[in-house]
Amino acid sequence: ITTSLAKDLWSFPPNLKFGAASASYQVEGGWKDDGKGENIWDKYVHDHSGLIKGGVTGDIAADSYHRWRDDVKVAAKMKLQFYRFSINWPRILPTGFTNKINQAGVDYYSDLIDGLLAEGIEPIVTMYHWELPVAIQDLGGWANPLIVEWFGDFARVIFKIYAERVRTWLTFNEPVAFCDYGYNSGMYAPGVQEQIYGPYLCNKHVLLAHAKAYRIFHKEFRPRYTGKISLANNVLWIEPLDLSYSSLAELGRQHQTGRYSHPIFSKEGGWPPSIEKLMEEYSLKQGFKESRLPKFTRHEIEFIKGTADFYGLNYYTTNMIRPAIPGDKPGIWFLNGSPELNATLLKPKGAYYGHDDLLPVKPEGLRKELNWLKEQYGDIDFFITENGYSTTAYNLADYERVKYMRDHLEQMLLSIKEDKVSVVGYAAWSLVDNFEWLGGYSTKFGLYEIDYEHPNRTRTARASAHYYRCVIEKRSLDVPKSCYVKNYTHN
Ligand code: PNW
Question: How confident is the model at residue 357 (pLDDT cuts 50, 70, 90)?
């Protein structure tokens, strides 16, 4: 296969949109302003400051709740075609339910949307980037089947207010992260450690809630406003450490990605057959009377199947897989608590690293992943909803991030031009520095730097912001030398 592109193929297709992404808890701050309710990350971070690097909180973060105009300004400066942000559920519904709508929260997103549209930037809304109202968590959160109805109610409220102006929607960001890490290893909020049913109940209910929102949108709103809706899956590309582990690698992919994709995107619907079988056999062996992976009814399979207008994927990294060896550290977090696979994930060789050593950089994984997804689910539109690189200290001269973006954009172009994959969007993670979950503020993903010492949380362009603007303006990987700023300080 071709691994580098002839220069005459360096242009991006006209229908591909460029933008940047963020998430509400990571940037907004204003955690209890103007009637907002508490979400599980507010609570988790306040209760377990020892788990967050530097003991910091998202109480202020980039202060986007007050400084969203600055976000719009920098998005416009980079000539972004869209900005993907998320809605903080209890900012709109402080109790979690529709008995009370917080007008200040409604106005916040409304102003942000209008601000973006005034600059010709399309708002793309993630409806859930992990900010569950605490009241709903107290009732079991994603383990409680009633959440399907409650999420549907929330969805209807926000469609009603924003669907006239928002044409691209993502129900969920990375269910694998909040189900498998939130309920299993418990390293993410809500910090539940229940490896038996937690992640799998969450998995099933998230799929049903997604389908519910999709159907509400298509039935009640799309006819009037048009628009598209899907979800953003995190896809960790898994490679066999040795060719003899190919089928294990495939099982790993079905476990990580298939469980959140097959029910929606495959022709037959339901769980990936290989995972259904594995979970059943392993559960019986463990002494359970049936599979820990909850069954779907016929009706549920049909309800979930086909409920996406494109495939949204967040790509960061690649891991290698091999069978577990006694004494293996269960440390590598991606498969924590998946003993049924009896496998270990390892970092790939030849990768380079940003600040976050959990995310080895392997640009080729993006192309392989896109090809795998097309093979699995057909020739649909793919939208890269996140891709990004972390740096450590205050540093505007982020040439490694420029390299990261260039390398991934090249792989994306190879998929488009060589493999004929339809890629319709690319979102850089992230617009500005933000609260990087357990990494606090030490891990920086922004194209714009945030000055956390300054009360205004001043936003300053990094070298990567200049590079990205060039790419967007030229719509080509072939950008003038001047786009790779040298000896960058700030201008
Ligand atoms: C994403 N992996 O999480 C999240 O969507 C963002 O909120 C976050 O800030 C960003 O990545 C950077 O960490 C990830 O398994 C979760 O490779 C898991 C993986 C990658 C990213």
Answer: confident
Paired residues of 85 in beta bridges: 125
Type of residue found at 456? N
d(CA 426, ligand 1 centre) in Å: 16
| Sheet with 318-323: strands ordered across | 237-240, 318-323, 343-346
For residues 136-155, average pLDDT: 98
Residues with a CB atom less than 6 Å from ligand 1: 23, 26, 173-174, 177, 234, 236, 314, 316-317, 334, 359, 386, 429, 436, 445
Residues acting as catalytic residues? 174, 386
Distance from C-alpha of 428 to C-alpha of 417, rounded to nearest angstrom: 21
pLDDT given for residue 167 in this prediction: 98
Q: What is the pLDDT of residues 271-287, one digit of tens each?
A: 999 999 999 999 999 99
Question: What is d(CA 31, CA 66) in angstroms, rounded to the nearest whole number?
Answer: 11
- Packing angle, helices 147-162 and 198-216, rounded to 10: 40
* Sign for the pseudo-dihedral over CA of 116, 118, 121, 125: positive
ipTM: 0.91
Q: What does DSSP assign to residue 233?
A: E
- Report the 10 Å Cβ neighbour count for 98: 13
What is the share, in percent, of the chain residues with pLDDT greater than 70? 98
pLDDT given at position 491: 46
Q: Do 163 and 226 touch, CB atoms closer than 8 A?
A: no
Dig out the tokens for 385 from the structure. Answer: 């909803």
Say if strands 228-234 and 311-314 run parallel, antiparallel, or are unpaired.
parallel
Integer Rg of the chain from CA: 21
| The pLDDT value given to residue 248 | 96
Are 176 and 259 spatial neighbours (Cβ–Cβ below 8 Å)?
yes
Residues 6+ apart with CB under 8 A from 468: 18, 20, 78, 405, 428, 447
The terminus-to-terminus CA distance of the chain in angstroms comes to 42
Q: Which atom of ligand 1 has the smallest separation from the CA of 436?
A: 9
pTM: 0.97
Average pLDDT value over all residues in the chain: 95
Atom of ligand 1 nearest to the CA of 390: 12
Q: Which residues of 107-134 are buried (b: 16+ CB within 10 A; e: fewer)?
A: ebbeebbebbeeeebbbbbbbbbbbbbb
pLDDT confidence of residue 312: 98
Q: How far is the C-alpha of 413 from the C-alpha of 30, rounded, in Å? A: 39
CA atoms within 13 A on the CB side of 137: 23
Inter-CA distances, 160 with 93, 98, 215, 378, Å: 14, 13, 14, 32
Residues 6+ apart with CB under 8 A from 305: 263, 264, 266, 268, 269
Q: What's the gap in Å between 395 CA and the centre of ligand 1?
A: 22
When pLDDT is averaged across residues 461-483 and rounded to a whole number, the result is 96
